[in-house]
Specification:
Length: 189
C-alpha cells in the first residue's frame, strides 16, 4: 500500500529501470529516456507516457486495515497504470526505422525480463514498504493505438502499451473502534 505519491513512484521506478538497462546501448545517455507525452518528446529517444489510470476490480481490497488497538482504516484503492512507450530516434531517415525498432526491441526485452519490479528496482514509498509491481505488455488493437495519436496533428510514432499494477493508494479515512474487553455468557437449560 502506498501514499498518494505511489503513482509517481511507479513511473520513476520504470524510468530508472529503463535508464539502467538501456544505456549506453542502444541509447547513449540515461537522460535521453524520460516521462512525457509523445507530442512533447523533447530530446528523448524513448518516452513513457501515463495515459490512463483505472481502478482494478480484480485486485480490489474490501477488508478494513487495523491501525493499532483503537483504529481501523478503510481499504486502499487499487489501480492499474497504463503507459504508452514511444520511440523517437534522431537517426537519419534512411536508418531511422531500423534504429527505432532496435530501441523498442531492447525496451521490450528489459520490461519482459523485469516483469515484476521489486527491491532495489523500486523508488519512494514502493521501496520503503517493500512492494511489488507487475509490468505487462497490454494487448491493444492497432486501431486503438492509432486513435491514441489523434492529438495535435502529430504523425504516428512506433509505440507499445504497458500496464503496471496493481498499485494500492491508501485511504485517509480512519474509524475509531472499541475492543471487546468483557464477555457475558449465559447458559439456559
Amino acid at each position: 500500500m502506498g501514499e498518494y505519491s505511489v503513482i509517481a513512484d511507479v513511473s520513476a521506478s520504470l524510468i530508472k529501470l529503463l535508464r539502467e538497462r538501456m544505456t549506453p546501448d542502444p541509447i547513449p545517455q540515461p537522460e535521453l529516456i524520460g516521462l512525457c507525452s509523445p507530442v512533447d518528446k523533447g530530446d528523448f529517444y524513448l518516452s513513457l507516457f501515463l495515459y490512463s489510470v483505472r481502478e482494478s476490480g480484480d485486485s480490489r481490497k474490501t477488508q478494513m486495515v487495523s491501525r493499532g488497538t483503537g483504529e481501523i482504516q478503510f481499504p486502499p484503492m487499487t489501480v492499474d497504470l497504463h503507459y504508452l512507450m514511444t520511440v523517437h530516434s534522431p537517426a537519419e531517415l534512411q536508418s531511422r526505422a531500423l534504429d527505432e525498432q532496435r530501441i523498442l526491441g531492447r525496451a521490450m526485452q528489459v520490461l519482459y525480463d523485469h516483469s515484476v519490479l521489486r527491491g532495489p528496482a523500486l523508488v519512494g514509498t514502493l521501496a520503503e514498504r517493500n512492494e511489488e509491481v507487475r509490468v505487462v505488455m497490454e494487448s491493444m488493437p492497432g486501431d486503438a493505438l492509432l486513435n491514441m495519436w489523434n492529438f495535435a496533428d502529430t504523425p504516428y510514432r512506433l509505440s507499445v502499451s504497458y500496464v503496471a499494477g496493481p498499485v494500492m493508494i491508501d485511504s485517509t479515512r480512519v474509524k475509531t473502534t472499541k475492543r471487546v474487553t468483557e464477555r457475558d455468557v449465559s447458559i439456559q437449560g
